[in-house]
User: Fold these one by one.
Assistant:
Number 1:
Amino acid sequence: MLKIDNLHASVEDKTILQGINLEVKAGEVHAIMGPNGSGKSTLASVIAGKEEYEVTKGNIEFNGEDIDELAAEERAHKGVFLSFQYPVEIPGVSVTNFMKTAINETRKAKGLEDMPAKDMLKLIREKSELLEIDRKFLSRSLNEGFSGGEKKRNEIFQMAMLEPKLAILDETDSGLDIDALRIVANGVNKLKSKDNAVVVITHYQRLLDYIVPDFVHVLYNGKIVKSGTKELAHELEEKGYDWIKEEVNA
Amino acid sequence: MDLKEKLLSSFLVFENQVDIDTYVHDVRNDAIKIFEEKGFPTKKEEAWKYTSLNKILKEDYSVFPQQENAIEYKDIKKYFIHDIDTYKIVFIDGKYSSHLSQTTHDGMDVCLMSSALTKPKYRILIENYFNKAATKDSLSSLNTAFSSEGAYIHIPKNKMVEKPIQILHFSTGNESATMLQPRNLIVVDENSHVQIIERHQSLNDNPVLTNSVTEIFTNKRAIVDYYKIQNDNSNASLIDNTFIKQKKESVASVHTFAFGGKLTRNNLNFFQEGERIDSILKGVTIIGEKQHVDHNTLVHHIEPNCESHQDYKGIFGENSTGVFNGKIIVEKEAQKTNAFQANNNILISDKATINTKPQLEIFADDVKCSHGCTIGQLDESAMFYMRSRGIPEKEAKALLMYAFSNNVLSSVKIPEMKQRITKIIANTLGVNIGFDL
C-alpha cells in the first residue's frame, strides 16, 4: 500500500530525513519509534503532503502511484489520513460543519454527489458513539478550547468519518489519560481491517499494548536504523534509546 | 469645469426648481456655503490621509440625471432580499420608482424624503430632525445642499415593525457618468423597533459616484438594526455618511458588508445623548483587484453608563487597500463608559495594504476602553490541517475566511440577510460550498 524508497526531505535547507525505506502492506500495523528530533513527525507530515517540506531525493508510492507531487487534499482523497500531534484550533468552524465539508469535498473529488443530510447525521451519530463523544461537543468550534484528550479523540473521530486506507497516528497517545487512551485505541482497532493499514508514531510502548503492531521501526537521525516485531518496543521501553544510538554511531 | 464648480453652478438652478420651504431653504443655502468654502476633502486632511478622491472626482458626472429610467423587477430581483416580505423604497438614478416600491403610511411612515421635505404635515418633524445629526463637513454639507430625495421613515412610539425595510438605490448608467446624492431620514420613537437594509447598486460599468447621507434618530429605548450591503461594480464609488443620534436606553447597530466597488468610504458617526445607550458597529470587508474600502468611525460618549462595541474584520487580496480609522471620544461626564474596538485584518496578497488606526480621546477617569488591531496572514498550519482532511486549498481558504468573519455574521438578526451575505462571500471567494456557520 505504502512504499517509501530512499526518502530524503528537508525544511528551510535543513535535511531531516536522510534515506527512509519503509513498506506498509494492507492489513498491517507499523509502529515508528525513536528519540526526540529523530524525524518521526517530519516523516508523517511529508507523507501527508505538508508543503514546507521538500522531498530532495527518493519517492513515496501509495497503491502503486507516486504521490510526492500531489497536494495534501489529493492525498487525502486517495485515502491518506494524518492524526495530528497538535491538532489545529479553528475558531468559527464547528466539528460537524468541518466534517461535512471534508466528506463532501472528498466525494466531489471522486465524482460523487454530496452525501444526503440524513446519511450524514447517521454516520456522525454512529462514529461519535464509537469514540464516546458527546453530541454537544460536535457543535463546538473545531479544537477550540478542547482538552488534550478531547483533541485526540476528535482526531480519531475524523478518521472514523473519513475511513482512510492509510492512517498515520502521530503521537496520538501524548496527553491522554488511561481511559481516553483506551477509547482512542479501541476506536482505531474497530476501524482496522485487512484492507487498510495503520502507522503509529510514538515515544512510548504504552499505546502499543492496545494497538498491537506487526512491525516496529526505530527512527534515528532521519533514518530507520532498526526494525523488528513488537518485542523491539518492549526492549526500547526497558533500555531506552541509548544502546541504539551507540550501535549506530559505532 | 471641475466638479466643484459644476456643483456650485447647478445649485442655483436646483434651488429654483424645488418647492421652497424656508427652513429647508436656509439649511441648503448654509450647506452650499460650507461646501464652497471647504471643497472636496484632500489627503492633507488627517481624516482623509489614506483615501484620495482625486481620481474619482475627475469624471464628468451628470449631477442631475434627466431621464426617467424604467427597470423591470425581474432584472434587479437579485439585489433585493426577496425571500421574505419587506417594505421597499426604490430609487432609479435618484428618482423614486413607485412600481418597484412598497411603502406605507399605515401607523407609520415608510415613504419619501421628497414628500417629507415639501408637505406641510411633515414640517415639524423636518424642523426637529432634518440635518440635526449630520456634521458640517464638506461632503455631508454638499449632500444637504442638494438633498431632495431618499427614504423617509418615521416609526411612532411603541411599534415593533415586523417587516424589514429595504432602501435600494439603483443607477442605470444611461448617462456616461452619474453622481447621486440620496438623503435618508429615519426617526424611531420611544420603545419602537425597526430593521433596515440599504444597498446602492449600479447596473452597468459607467462610473457612478454616490455621496449619501443618512440621519438616524433613536429615541428612548428604541432599537434600530441597520445593514449596509456594499457590493457594487468596479466603477462605482460610494461615500456613505451616516449619523446616529441616540437617546437614553436605546440600542443602535450598524453592520457594514463591504465586498465591492471602486472606492468606498464609510463615515459612520454615533452620538450618545442619554444614559445606558448601546451602540454597535460591525463590519466585514472582503475585497480584491484595486478596490479601496475606508471605514471611518466615530463614537461620541457624552453621558454616563453607556456602551459601544466595534468589531471590524477585513480580508484584502490582490492590489486592494483598506483603511480603518476608529475614533472614540469619552467626555468628562461619561463615567462608567464601556467602549470596545477591534479591527482584525488578513492580507492574502503581498500587494494588498491596510492602514488601521485607533484613536481614543478619554476625558473621564472611570471607564473601560479597549482597542486592538491585528494584521496577519491566513494560518498556514490551519490550511494544512484542513487540506489533509480533503478540503481543497481554495475551499479551505474560504472556510478560514468565513470563520474569521463569523463573529460579525453571527450577530445579523435577519436569517435571510445572513444567508445572502454568506452567498455573496462565497461568490466573492469563488467557492461553492454550503457553509452554514
Note: The helical segments of chain A are 40-48, 72-78, 95-109, 117-130, 148-162, 178-191, 230-239, 242-249.
Number 2:
Amino acid sequence: MSNVRFRLNGVETEVDADPDSSLLGILRGTLEMTGPHFGCGANECGACHVLVGNHAVAACDTPLWSVADKDVITVEGLGSAQAPHPLQRAFIAEQAMQCGYCVSGILISAAALLQQNPTPTSGDVKAALDRNLCRCGSHNRMVRAVLRAAAEMAAR
Amino acid sequence: MSERAPSPAPKLPVSLAANPTLSSWVQFSREGHVMISPGKVEIGQGIITALAQIAADELDIDIGRVQMARASTAASPNEGVTSGSLSVQQSGRAIRQACAEVRQIFLGAASDRLGVGIDALAVEDGTISGPGNIRTSYWELAEHVSLDRDATPGAMPKPPARRMQAGYSVQRLDIPDKVFAHRRFIHDAALPGMLHGLVLRSELSAAKLTGLKEDGARAVTGLVALVHDGNFVGVVSETEDGAQAALKALRRSATWSSDRMLPDEGQLAAFLKAEPSQSTEIDTRTASATREPVRTVRRQYTRPYIAHASIAPSCAMAQWTAEDRVHVWTHSQGVYLLRADLALVLKLPAENITVEHMEGAGCYGHNAADDVALDAVLLAKAAQGRPVRVQWSREDEMSHAPFGAAMAIEIEADLDARDEIIGWRHSIWSNGHTARPGRAAEPALLAATELETPFPRMISTNPPSASGGGADRNSVPLYDFPSWRIECHRLTTMPIRTSALRTLGAQGNVFAIECFLDELAAERGEDPVEFRLRLLSDERAKDVIRAVARRANWKPDKQAGTGYGLGFARYKNTGAYCAVIAEVEGAEDISVRRLTIAVDVGEAINPDGVINQIEGGAIQATSWVLKERVRFDRQRITSTTWGSYPILRFSDVPDVQVELIQRSDSEPLGAGEAAHGPVTAAIANAVFDALGVRVRNLPITRDSLIAAMELNS
C-alpha cells in the first residue's frame, strides 16, 4: 500500500492503495465514481475510458501508480445536468444511445478527439471511437452527436 | 387482429385482464405526480418512455408528471417476460385502457364535487375544470378516489386524432441520467454493507470439480465466506479486489473434468441434422389443383451460434433479510419468472422472495442475468444478512450464458415449366430457441445444475407457433405459393447451451427464404422487387417493399465491386413489416455501405424511438452477418473475449436510412426485432449482386466467401 495523488475531475485526490491496483477499481470502488464502466477488464471495449491528460485510456488496464500527479477526468467531470458539456447536450439532442452502458466511455473518447481536433469529419469521429464497442447499434447517432457538439463548440 | 383502434374494447387487453386492479398500474400523488407501474422492463429499448407517453396522453397530463416504477414482484402487475417485441402491444394497451378508465373515474368524482355533468368538464395537465372557472385536479381528488378496483372493459381510449403525445418523438426519459452518469444501472448500485461475490467456473462445458484446495483463498484478506456445494464454488469478500484474489487462488488449485463433447464447429449442419430430434409439422398448404413440377431446386442455409455479447457482463445483488426470506436485484427480463425459478431452487414459497428490476446494459434476449441472480442468492446465504453483489467476468459471459441457437435450413422449391413456384418445402434443424426461467417444473438457472444435488440441465424448446414459434419463427412464407410444407426438427440434446436471442429463429428463416427467392428471381431474370410484389397480396407488405425501392432508387446501374440486395419480412408474420435494401462493396472483405429500410409498426408511439430500434437492429444484424460466430473446440467455448468474438466497430458501420410508414389507426407493433432477418438477407443478396457468389453459410467472412466460390466453381 502507498499513497498515490492525482487530480480527479479537477479535485486533488489521494488514495492509499496498492499502486498496482487497476485505476478502474479505485475509481468505482474507493472513490465511488461509477461513470467509467467495467466491460471486459482487458482494454478491448472502451466502456471504462477516462481522460488521463489529453488521452482516452482504458481505466481497467491502467495501474494506479501511472496516474500519479496527473489529471484524470471521468464522464462525471465532463459536465453535469446543471452545466452539461456540449457532448452531453448533443447526445441528448440526438438521442444517441439505446441502453447507454457504453456511453460514458464514448463521451470520453469523443472529448479526447475534440481536444485534439476541434473540427473532425465523420471519418475522424469513427476512427476516434473505433476502440469503443456499442452493442445496441447506436453508432450513427453517436457520430452525429459528436459532430453536433463540435459544431456547437466551434460556434462559441 | 383488429386493424381498427381504438374501439370500445369488448374485453380487456391481456395484461390488464391478468392484473385488473387499477391501482397496480396507476397511482396519483398529492404532489402532482402519477406513478405508472408496468410489468415490462427497460432493457435499453426505450419502453418506459413509450409507456409514459401513452399514460400522459390518456390522462391529459404533461409527461414530466409521469414517474415510471421499476418492476418488482412486491408491487408490479405480472406481465411475464419483456421479450418478443410485445411490450407496446401488451403493456401499452393495458396502460392505455387503464388510464382511460382512471380518467373517467376522476371525471366522475370531479363531477360530484363540482356539481356539473362530466360532459362539461375538461382535463388539462391534471387540472379538471368546468364552466365558470370551477376546478379541481387529480392531485386534489387523489385521496378521495380509490383505484383499488378492477378495470372494466367499458372505458374508451382517445381516438388517434386526439392524441397529443403518443405518436410524437418524445425524448427518452432515461437518457439524461446516462450521459451524466447518474446511477441507473444495477452495475453502479451500492447497498449499505455490500459485499462482493464471485463464482469459480471452469472453461470446460458442464465441468465437474475433481479437486480443490481452499486454504489459499481462505488466507486472502477480507474473505467473508467460501461457498462450496457440489460443483458450485464461490467466494464472498469485503472488497471486489479481495474477491478476485480469492477466486484466483481457488482457480489455481481447482481441477475439473468433463465428459461433454461439443460438436465439430466446421460441420455444423451435419451435426444439427445427425442429432436426435423431435419433428413437428409447422404448417402445410395444399394446392387446389396439383401440377407436376418440371424441376425442383434445393438449397441449404446455416447460421452459427450467436452470443448476446452485451457490453456489460451480467450482474445481480441479493440479501437474505431473514432465514427464509431473500431480496434480489436483477436486470432479468422477467422478475416473476426469475422468482419462480429461485423458489424451485431454494425450496421456498415464492412470496418469501422479492425480485426487483434494475436496468442493465442492452439486453438482446435471455442472457446470464437470471443465472447471476441465483449466484448472488447462493453466495448471500453465507453472508449473515449482508447484501452481496456478483458480476460475471467477460469470459464467463461469453462462454456460460446461453447462445442464440445454430440453425440448418433446407428449402426446396418445385418449379413449373415457366419457373413459377408451385411447391415449397422448408425444413429446420436447430436446438430450441428458449430455455427461459419460470415456465417449467425445473429451474433454468445455471448454478442449479452445479449444486451437490443438481437439477437437470433444461433442454431448450420452442414457443408454440401461435406465439410466433421459436426455431420456426417466420418460416411460413408470406408469399402466395400454391402449396407448402414447413417442418421443424428440434434437437433433444444440447451440447451447447441455447436460449432466446433477438428474433429467435426468424433471422435464420428470413435469411433462407429471402435468399432463395432472390436466387429464383435471378434465374428467371426477374427483378427481385417485382418478383416479390407479384407473389404478395398483403398491401402493407407491398407498401414497405415499394417504399424501400423508391427511397433507395432501386435499382442503380451496375458498378464493379458494388452490389444491391433486397430482404423483406413481417416479423413473426403478425408483427412489424420491414423491407431492406443493402448496398455492399468489396471483394475479399465485404463492407456494408448503406442500409435503406422501410418499416410499418402500425401506430408508432414514439417515432424516433422506433427509428432508433430499427437502426440499432439493422446495425446489430450487420454485425451478426459480417462478424459473428461463437467459436469452440470439442471441450470448450473459445470465443471468450472481444478479440476472439469480434463485433462491428464504428468504422465498419453502414449508413442507415429508415422510412417509417405511420398508421396511427392500426395497433402498435414492436420494432426491436423487425430488421434483423430482412437486413441479413439483403446483405447476402447484395453480396451476390456484387460478386456473383451465393453465400449460404453465415457469417459472410473472407473464409465463407472463398468456400462459397469454391462450391460455385
Note: Confidence is low (pLDDT under 50) at residues 1-5 of chain B.
